[in-house]
């Protein structure tokens, strides 16, 4: 007979049933230890004889098998935790090593680029020098006609004739436009007839008054009537004269703005008339120049339309009032203009000598960096190289090098391409005149003066 034993699987919830089934065991004795039995014994920490099959052995009961399973369950969490901790430590070591290597490589790369020599920038230079400038001032002005107007009409009417030749000179009193005066002439004849009658009656009543044949009141009434009719005649003649539009002064005619047969109202523009010779030049100066410019001061004017030509004139009037909003005062100069080259409304550059001379430090305007926080230049200095300096290929460098340093300056008046420096530079210093945008403090430069910016006090286009 076989020994009954309870199967450990009879109580597993996954089977869905609970039963106690006896499994037959053979009574044959195992001559060689069973591997499965040995493994079960080791896991359960039981001696092998209890798991061997034979007459002296017995099969493990169900409580013993359950105890073995519980022990296995208790050992698994501890073993899994140790393995998880080991894996996390290894991962931390690996990732930490990666970050350390990357940080070291980044630091080495930054150190390489920080210490890498920068290529020298190619610039042009200028040696600061002192020049003697006349004490002069400059301004911007506008040409104004001595006599200039837009001819209009005082009376309305239809244009009967035109005598306007645009662009041609005319003399004062020349008839330009004639309006229709037929009705006005007819009214004038009527008024003249009434005036003649009134004059005759006035004279007759005066004779009668001397003879005491009429009262003095009647004589005065007739005199008043005659004076009234005569005044009406003069008014009608003035109206007719207003319809004859004449040039008010000598000048050059502009473009006409009316046509033949057109009706014009009082005040409508007819044509422009400008007196060209001489011509005024109006400009403004700051209040600091009040005592420096006087009537008779010679001035020079240039216009963009006529490059290379300078027109001379003299100050003829000075505005006594200084504008409170701009702190400037107006000056008017008169210039001869026989060729009519200067036109009213033209923009002009004005320069005038105040009488003195002074020595100033000058530099090209291209050398100055104009900024809201101050004007600056780059000064070139020659310094010896360090012993450990190398070029881009790693070769050692010897000798000296040129470094630039930014320096703030104060500027003054300008003359052509030059600008005066009142503070910050001394004659003999070298400054950069081109390529300022690519420079910084202590940047190395090389000089290439094949193409230099203009540095002329009186440039010509």
Ordered list of secondary-structure elements with their pairings:
Blueprint (H helix, E strand, L loop, with lengths): L34 H10 L17 H54 L5 E7 L1 E17 L2 E5 L4 E6 L6 E2 L4 E5 L2 H29 L5 H27 L1 E3 L4 E3 L9 E2 L4 E6 L4 E8 L11 E5 L8 E8 L9 E8 L11 E18 L10 E10 L15 E16 L2 E6 L6 E5 L9 E4 L14
Parallel strand pairs: 1-20
Antiparallel strand pairs: 1-19, 2-11, 2-15, 3-10, 4-6, 4-9, 5-8, 6-7, 8-10, 11-14, 12-13, 12-15, 13-14, 15-18, 16-17, 17-18, 17-20
Helix pairs in contact: 3-4
Structure description:
- Helix content is 26%, strand content 31%.
- The model is unreliable at 1-57 (pLDDT under 50).
- The chain has helices spanning 35-44, 62-115, 182-210, 216-242, and strands spanning 121-127, 129-145, 148-152, 157-162, 169-170, 175-179, 244-246, 251-253, 263-264, 269-274, 279-286, 298-302, 311-318, 328-335, 347-364, 375-384, 400-415, 418-423, 430-434, 444-447.
- Helix 3 runs antiparallel to helix 4 (216-242).
- By secondary structure, the chain is of the alpha+beta class.
- The termini are far apart.
- Among the domains are: 8-73, no CATH class; 121-133 and 359-447, Beta Barrel (conserved putative lor/sdh protein from methanococcus maripaludis s2 fold); 181-242, Helix Hairpins (Orthogonal Bundle).
- The radius of gyration is 58 Å and the shape is elongated.
- It has a 6-stranded antiparallel barrel with strand order 2-11-14-13-12-15. It has a 4-stranded antiparallel β-sheet with strand order 3-10-8-5, with no helix packed on it.
């Amino acid at each position: 007979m076989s020994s009954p034993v309870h199967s450990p699987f009879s109580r597993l919830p996954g089977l869905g049933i609970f039963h106690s089934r006896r499994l037959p065991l053979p009574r044959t004795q195992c001559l060689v230890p069973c591997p499965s039995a040995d493994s079960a014994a080791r896991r359960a920490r039981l001696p092998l004889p209890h798991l061997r099959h034979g007459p002296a052995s017995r099969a493990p009961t169900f409580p013993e098998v359950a105890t073995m399973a519980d022990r296995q369950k208790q050992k698994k969490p501890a073993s899994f935790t140790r393995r998880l901790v080991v894996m996390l430590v290894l991962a931390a070591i690996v990732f930490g090593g990666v970050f350390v290597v990357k940080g070291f490589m980044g630091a080495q790369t930054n150190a390489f680029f920080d210490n890498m020599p920068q290529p020298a920038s190619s610039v042009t230079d200028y040696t600061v020098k002192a020049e003697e400038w006349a004490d002069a001032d400059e301004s911007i002005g506008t040409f104004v006609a001595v006599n200039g107007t837009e001819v209009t009409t005082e009376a309305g009417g239809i244009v009967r004739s035109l005598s306007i030749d645009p662009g041609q000179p005319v003399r004062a009193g020349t008839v330009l436009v004639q309006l229709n005066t037929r009705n006005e002439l007819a009214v004038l004849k009527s008024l003249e007839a009434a005036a003649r009658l009134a004059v005759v009656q006035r004279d007759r009543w005066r004779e009668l008054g001397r003879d005491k044949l009429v009262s003095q009141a009647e004589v005065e009434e007739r005199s008043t009537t005659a004076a009234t009719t005569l005044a009406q005649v003069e008014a009608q003649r003035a109206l007719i004269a207003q319809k004859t539009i004449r040039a008010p002064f000598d000048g050059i005619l502009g473009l006409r703005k009316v046509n033949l047969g057109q009706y014009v109202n009082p005040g409508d523009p007819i044509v422009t008339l400008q007196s060209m010779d001489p011509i005024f030049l109006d400009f403004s100066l700051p209040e600091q120049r009040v005592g420096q410019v006087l009537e008779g001061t010679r001035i020079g004017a240039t216009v963009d339309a006529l490059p290379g030509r300078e027109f001379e004139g003299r100050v003829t009037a000075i505005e006594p009032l200084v504008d409170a909003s701009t702190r400037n005062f107006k000056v008017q100069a008169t210039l001869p203009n026989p060729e009519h080259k200067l036109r009213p409304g033209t923009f002009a550059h004005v320069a005038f000598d105040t009488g003195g001379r002074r020595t100033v430090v000058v530099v090209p305007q291209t050398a100055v960096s104009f900024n809201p926080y101050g004007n600056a230049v780059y000064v070139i200095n020659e310094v010896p190289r360090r012993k450990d300096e190398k070029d881009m290929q790693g070769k050692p460098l010897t000798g000296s090098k040129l470094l630039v340093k930014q320096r703030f300056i104060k500027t003054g008046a300008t003359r052509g391409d030059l600008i005066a420096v009142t503070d910050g530079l001394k004659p003999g210093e070298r400054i950069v005149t081109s390529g300022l945008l690519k420079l910084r403090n202590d940047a190395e430069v090389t000089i290439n003066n094949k193409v230099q910016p203009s540095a002329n006090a009186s440039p010509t286009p």
